[in-house]
Amino acid sequence: xxxxxxxxxxxxxxxxxxxxxxxxxxxxxxxxxxxxxxxxxxxxxxxxxxxxxxxxxxxxxxxxxxxxxxxxxxxxxxxxxxxxxxxxxxxxxxxxxxxxxxxxxxxxxxxxxxxxxxxxxxxxxxxxxxxxxxxxxxxxxxxxxxxxxxxxxxxxxxxxxxxxxxxxxxxxxxxxxxxxxxxxxxxxxxxxxxxxxxxxxxxxxxxxxxxxxxxxxxxxxxxxxxxxxxxxxxxxxxxxxxxxxxxxxxxxxxxxxxxxxxxxxxxxxxxxxxxxxxxxxxxxxxxxxxxxxxxxxxxxxxxxxxxxxxxxxxxxxxxxxxxxxxxxxxxxxxxxxxxxxxxxxxxxxxxxxxxxxxxxxxxxxxxxxxxxxxxxxxxxxxxxxxxxxxxxxxxxxxxxxxxxxxxxxxxxxxxxxxxxxxxxxxxxxxxxxxxxxxxxxxxxxxxxxxxxxxxxxxxxxxxxxxxxxxxxxxxxxxxxxxxxxxxxxxxxxxxxxxxxxxxxxxxxxxxxxxxxxxxxxxxxxxxxxxxxxxxxxxxxxxxxxxxxxxxxxxxxxxxxxxxxxxxxxxxxxxxxxxxxxxxxxxxxxxxxxxxxxxxxxxxxxxxxxxxxxxxxxxxxxxxxxxxxxxxxxxxxxxxxxxxxxxxxxxxxxxxxxxxxxxxxxxxxxxxxxxxxxxxxxxxxxxxxxxxxxxxxxxxxxxxxxxxxxxxxxxxxxxxxxxxxxxxxxxxxxxxxxxxxxxxxxxxxxxxxxxxxxxxxxxxxxxxxxxxxxxxxxxxxxxxxx
Length: 785
What we know:
By secondary structure, the protein is α+β, with helices and mostly antiparallel strands. It folds into four domains: 31-208, no CATH class; 214-337, Cathepsin B, Chain A (Alpha-Beta Complex); 353-400 and 424-441 and 448-504 and 519-581, Jelly Rolls (Sandwich), CATH 2.60.120.380; 587-784, EF-hand (Recoverin, domain 1), CATH 1.10.238.10. Strands 10-17-11-14-15-16 form a six-stranded antiparallel sheet. A five-stranded antiparallel sheet has the order 24-21-26-19-28. A four-stranded mixed sheet has the order 33-29-1-35.
């Protein structure tokens, strides 16, 4: 079992790796093509068993069964109340999407923005669907869900009340792509009612897989017009909200407070020596428009040439209108921008491409949910991601009449100013996005989004170079898989698309976790930036950072809060990112057979040995001639350990006795599963003393327990180096309700690991000390003990 670095390392491989980008995954395993073919063969219309047309699909509270709003609701197919239903009309436009009786204007405003870009629309709403030829009552839509695309199948039974659709409808009454898309989104999250209330960026992200940003507006926000203009030029989706503390209400100027609007265009017009900046907005209601300056009937338009009026102005009550920038800033509180990924933009994006990394994670109570305060004792346990920025942004020309300042700290356009203009320090623009996964689905249970956010710390060069990964990325070799999350890289549609990307570990692996001084190292880092901490699904921030090494630490605000999350990193220039993790390995010394002479431990056990083994075996032990035939069962082992460990555990407030189940586990690890020979007990005793010393190091208050947040460090001290996934599973298994791990559970944990690594070491070949196992093989090995 000799190897060069003194470790036994387990490398996990995937039998199916290297397949490249995957098609959208069928939601709930429902294949649109298979369902449609089956319906055509049988001649029946599809009825969705996973989202039945009934009260539960409507909601749970205001739309719940027996609620006033749910009374009189019928579920009908479009053919039952429309003479010639169309899935999507050729002259479809952004003004077609109109809101119904559900408070989901955020969703509808985002859907209306989709119509500006047919390529985006047809990614979400696959073409070729129809109510005519081959109609079977089944439709499908593709939505992005936390790092993957899913294909959601629905039947076309829609909620109707008093002969009209209850929720979203089209201005063209015979068009049904929008109501069916709304139903697919409702199915994805559990009901229509869970869509009540939200932020436009949620839908933007789910429609595109992009990264959403929220800009909180002030009375004077320099650079805003340039930001919006460049965002729209790069095919980003843009929305605006007029926030309200008393729900939705209409103002005298025709705006609806507490309502989401799409921003669909910008234009600059000259009136004499004055330049006027205009924004085009749309109310998803399809009516109720701005009546102030530059509204449809405003005389301001008469001062413009006729060709400009014809190009810009449509005098129609369609919910769309123009506003001057200053009026916009007076009435709206936020701008929401969704920057699109290379996968969606395609090979020839209108603007610069993006480089993207995506990581999946989870905050687990007692393991890595350390809270948001860097000064807290548990903050260092939060998930950590190392970001290396390699190149500063390219320089872009400034808008000739924009102020120097911008809404993101001097960054006024969709590409930051570059390395040398006016002696500026070269910086990199990075979009960081933290998403809580699957929380909207929990609304029916009375739960809501946690307060979450992230910190960005700068890693000094001396730490960054000696304790981190090689910053040069390399494609994963065939069959290999990074356990540090799903990692994707792309730039303008090129690079890697859905393939695993790993960072070659340097000689000192991945930094802080494997260090006994991890808390001190993290507390010594300077904070370079941070997001707001708020109770929203998506929390994002656009950072301007110098080239170098950084640590991104996402966290829930409160210690112990649990949730799944997705962290994504967008940058316009090349970067590398990796989750700080450890490989699965064990020090060889940990697995060695440790022998203790009976003379060292014999005197304290003489009465027990005489009683249970008789004078013969006792005499042979004195003379060094060990009785090979004498064996201990689980009950005898438990009694022996209670006597042997009593002096060692006497200085704690907890006796630390080993239970019968743990003794059975020790028989599995050191004996034949049923019993333990006395000479094998000598090996077990050596390990127990070593484990006890490691445990006592972290039992600072001599209570006989350790904090579960420190289990990882205790296992490291015992010679076991585990990745986050495995450590999380062990922590959840061996902690108690008070987030403590007692000595018995620690023994059970390290005994299991010893058994696993001993079993794996049988597969060692040569002197490298690396064992390659598939995920299936690893699962079998990790559970057999």
